[in-house]
Write a structure and sequence with these properties.
With 408 residues, the chain is α/β, with parallel strands linked by helices. The chain has helices at 2-19, 30-52, 58-70, 125-138, 157-169, 172-177, 192-206, 232-236, 245-255, 263-267, 277-280, 288-291, 294-297, 311-315, 331-335, 351-363, 391-407, and strands at residues 81-87, 90-96, 106-112, 140-146, 180-190, 216-220, 340-347, 368-377, 384-385, 388-389.
Length: 408
């Protein structure tokens, strides 16, 4: 009995130590965020152990656990018709609101989910719920793209899947099948899905034979560059849940089919040092000292290595491939982009990716709305369903849908 009285407080103290993280004072629902992060870290560590034992790839196990947990949640879709289809070899899930008597055509959103190009699914309740609410709120047809994931495939296959599915949907006969207005279509995505949405929009803008083009693009805390892992937001939020800097670097390595041994070199920007000739021409396009407002730059200093490792770019050429890194696009490509919405969160390593892209688009003459949330964190918009329901999720989701409703 005495041992139990000693053991229980010790376990409680250990659990509190594992869960507690120092968070910014303004972050939304801090204790709930700590619990979410602790759960995610524990699951990741278990998955890495399985990977280390060579029983399975850690991302396969992690995705399996995410989908298993997700099956515990049921999402109502009484008023929305949900069907699975295949667009040019790519699986999609289509959400269709009921027809209205006085309406012949509906607006539409092509949505590309996040998850580091490796996790989640268009079919999970988190994205199923988001797309259902979008379809209901906007009275729009929502096409959620089920692109293939790491480690099954790596770049550029996720990009090709998203592009093929989108181009198939934009064909006049397909739009007619779903009663979609060709002049009212948006391309959208969050996180890694925001990366794919931006890359798809850039490619569509170059396709002279495309009969229908998107009216808008909407990017939710998008990951847009692997050039500089020491922007102010990467420095400020390097240990911030649910996406610490080292985790984002590892997602990039997985996506580009690299070696984890490169992580440290990437973290200190050795891959884009001044002696890496292939990177020099892109430096001005990601110069955060001129692209970010003072409130984002704060007192942080650029991390630019004089000498680095040019072999990294030779081993991972996609680090400078605009299809993987949309922020590297030239000004002429950016000038062809549709009016754009970019949502950023203060407590997010990717905050500056979105802000820099918004600024470059603005300089290129594109109408841009930068919707910044000071108390929110990466990934929050999909966390609106119990037990991962956050006020930040509802707030960002409602703001995003409001912009689409007013502009699409």
């Amino acid at each position: 009995m005495r041992a139990a009285w000693v053991l229980l407080p010790a376990l409680a103290a250990l659990s509190a130590y594992y869960v507690y993280l120092p968070l910014p004072g303004a972050v939304s629902d801090p204790w709930k965020l700590m619990l979410l992060d602790a759960t995610f870290r524990a699951v990741q560590q278990t998955c890495h152990l399985i990977h280390y034992l060579r029983l399975s790839h850690h991302l396969i196990v992690l995705n399996y656990l995410i989908c298993t947990f997700d099956k515990l949640k049921s999402v109502s879709s009484e008023d929305i018709k949900i069907t699975d289809a295949v667009f040019d070899g790519v699986e999609v899930r289509v959400f269709e609101p009921p027809a209205k008597g006085d309406e012949s055509l509906k607006r539409s959103v092509v949505y590309i989910h996040g998850g580091g190009w490796a996790l989640a699914s268009a079919r999970t309740s988190l994205y199923n719920n988001l797309c259902r609410i979008m379809a209901e709120s906007l009275n729009a047809v929502v096409v959620s793209v089920e692109y293939r994931l790491v480690p099954e495939v790596c770049f550029p296959e996720q990009y090709h899947d998203a592009l093929r599915a989108t181009k198939h949907f934009l064909q006049p006969d397909v739009l007619a099948e779903y009663s979609v207005d060709p002049s009212r279509i948006a391309i959208s995505g969050d996180s890694a899905g925001g990366n794919l949405a931006a890359a798809v929009c850039q490619q569509l803008s170059k396709d002279e034979d495309l009969p229908v083009r998107p009216k808008l693009q909407a990017l939710i805390y998008p990951v847009l560059q692997a050039f500089d892992f020491n922007t102010p937001s990467y420095q400020q939020n390097m240990n911030m849940p649910v996406l610490p800097r080292y985790v984002m670097v590892n997602y990039w390595i997985d996506y580009l089919n690299g070696d984890y041994g490169l992580a440290h070199e990437l973290l200190v920007n050795n891959h884009t040092a001044l002696n890496v000739g292939r990177a020099l021409s892109f430096r001005a396009r990601l110069n955060w000292t001129s692209l970010l407002p003072p409130s984002f730059k704060k007192s942080y200093k650029p991390v630019v290595q004089a000498t680095g490792t040019a072999a990294i770019v030779e081993r991972l050429p996609a680090l400078l491939d605009v299809r993987a890194v949309p922020l590297l696009a030239d000004d002429a490509t950016l000038a062809r982009q549709p009016p754009t919405y970019v949502l950023t969160c203060e407590n997010d390593v990717l905050r500056d990716d979105g802000a820099m892209y918004a600024r470059r688009l603005e300089r290129a003459g594109v109408p841009v709305t930068l919707d910044h949330f000071h108390d929110c964190f990466h990934g929050c918009m999909i966390f609106t369903v119990w037990p991962t329901d956050f006020s930040a999720g509802v707030k960002t989701r409602d703001s995003y849908i409001k912009w689409l409703d007013e502009n699409l």
